[in-house]
Amino acid sequence: MDVITDNLGLYADGLLGTLKICGLVAVAALLLGIVLAGFRVSPVPPLRAVGTTYVTLVRNCPLTIVLFAFAFGLPEVGINGSYFAFGAAGLTVYTAAFVCEAVRSGIGAVDAGQAEAARSIGLTFGQSLRLVILPQALRAVIPPLGNVGIAMVKNSAIVGAFGVGGELYSVASTLNGARGEPALPVYSGVVIGYLIIIIPTGLLVLAAEKRLRVTR
Amino acid sequence: MSGSVLYDTPGPRGRRRIAVASVAAGIALAALAALAVRRLAANGQFDGSRWSPLFNPGDENFPALWRLLGGGLVHTLTAAGLAMSFSLVLGVLIATTRISAARWYRWAVVGVVELLRGVPVVIAIFFAAQVLPVYGLKLPPLWYIVIGLTAYNSVVISEIVRAGILAVPKGQREAAAALGLTRGQTLRIVLLPQAFRSMLPALISQLVVILKDTSLGAFISYEELLRRALIAIQTLHNPIQTYLVIGGIFILVNYLVTRLATYLEARLSGRRARPSVPAEDLSTG
Fold first, then answer.
1. Tens digit of pLDDT for each residue in B170-214?
2. Most confident of A66-70, A207-211, B115-119
3. Ranked by mean pLDDT, which of A74-88, B20-34, B96-110 comes out on top?
4. Which residues of A fall within a CB distance of 8 Å from B114?
């Protein structure tokens, strides 16, 4: 276990790197996912089709292939960037599909009677969305979004395996692959790093789920 | 329709507005598509040489390429099938022993479940591939994939199974106890068959997750579909076209599996609505 304590700084840097990627991707995927969810519930058929197609294609495609296609496909058409940019973009595109579904299911969870009541007292579309539906949908959306977030943190390891340096996974390839340190403690350290992020997040999601549960 | 909560059936003015928005969205989409096509064409992505090995049976590389990719798909399905089978067996074992066991064992199981659920699958696979050989367990790469996938998915499945068992009405367990069935018998004859039915859709959805994760095998040189595609790209130099095709294969397979899950869900929820299951059915359980 000396390997972990001797390289605590490296692990800490990795943890920060992972948090950095995850923070960036979380914001971008949330925005893209909400836009897509808006498409999926919009009354305009072409937009609905775009949303549905996006979700169906992306959800059924392995993240690994999305990442490879971004990093080695885009340069073919003259779009160049760093592995970090491609990795973050690929993970964003992938995660947004799941964010979209979480948001959409949240809107679906609002009782139809609520919207009908809002309309019958004369609220406009915008008002009923803003005052009645979204506040209720948000409660239903937060726990599943938390789970999407946890999955995203774990998927960031795939981005790491793919060659983006400076995050938790790459610590293992530096210590075990390049310096030949024993595999068991090195990988255990990486696992602990992920658990440090994931277990508190999971507990938070659980707490939010309990707090926000609505008895209907 | 999902949107029906948000708005009424549109009237004449609403319909006009929707039509205008549809045309605008259509134009925007067409413009985007045209931009993408121009970009692809400008970089020579529509050259026949990039597509014909994949789509033209007359091409000299066509048979070899599809033999390569076909073999890769078989390896992908093998890994997924093995991982699913092991995860199912282990998951049922974990779930059933957890429900009826001593307190220390239950806590131990909860610990392991939470631990493994928090570990990224790719790390689990690398862990298996890097750590096991150090302790003398040298296996073909297939088994590292299967071990990594099983470690993660067996605990996920155990949670699905546990939820399924807990969802069986309490009366079933009480009736079994009243008949004098032992705990094991109750589980085997009464609870599991009913739980299994309700959790089938969730289990099939998990299969999609497993199928997608087999592509991580490419990182530890297990020659599944993605790895084989990477090999083909080295000689054919057509990454965009090849990723398109293997992505398409994954999407098609997973889409069909998902459809199966939704179909079963609809069918099974229809069945549960029936008043009761004929007595003969129980005897075969």
1. 999 899 999 999 888 898 899 998 988 888 888 988 999 999 999
2. A66-70
3. B20-34
4. 199, 202
CA distances from A177 to A162, A212, B107 (A): 14, 45, 36
pLDDT at B272: 52
Instruction: List, as one string, the DSSP characters of B173-242.
Output: HHHHHHTT--HHHIIIIIIHHHHHHHHHHHHHHHHHHHHHHGGGGGGGT--SHHHHHHHHHHHH--HHHH
Chain A residues whose CB is inside 8 A of the B230 CB are: 68
Tokens representing A73 are 């496909």
Nearest to A65 among B120, B208, B243 (CB): B243
For the stretch A22-31, pLDDT in tens is: 999 999 999 9
CB contact under 8 A, A158 and B216: yes
The confidence score (pLDDT) of residue A62 equals 94
**Global ipTM:** 0.86
SS3 track for A165-211: CCCHHHHHHHHHHHCCCCHHHHHHHHHHHHHHHHHHHHHHHHHHHHH
CATH topology of domain B62-268: MetI-like fold (1.10.3720)
Decide which of B132 and B284 is more confident.
Answer: B132
Query: Hey, is the C-beta of A40 within 8 angstroms of any chain B C-beta?
Result: yes
CATH architecture of A18-166: Orthogonal Bundle (1.10)
Tokens of B222: 């297990």
Is the per-residue pLDDT at B2 higher than 60?
no
Confirm or reject contact between A100 and chain B (CB < 8 A).
no
**Cβ-based contacts of A60 with chain B (< 8 Å):** 208, 212, 250-251, 254-255, 258
pLDDT of residue A173: 81
- Helix H or strand E encompassing B42: helix B12-42
Q: Closest to B43 (Cβ–Cβ): which among A46, A76, A169?
A: A76
Contact yes or no for B219 and A161 at CB 8 A: yes
Domain ranges, ordered by start, for chain B: 62-268
> Are the beta carbons of B45 and A154 separated by less than 8 Å?
no
- Pick among A40, A47, A60, A79 to test the B interface (most B CBs inside 10 A): A60
pLDDT confidence of residue B278: 34
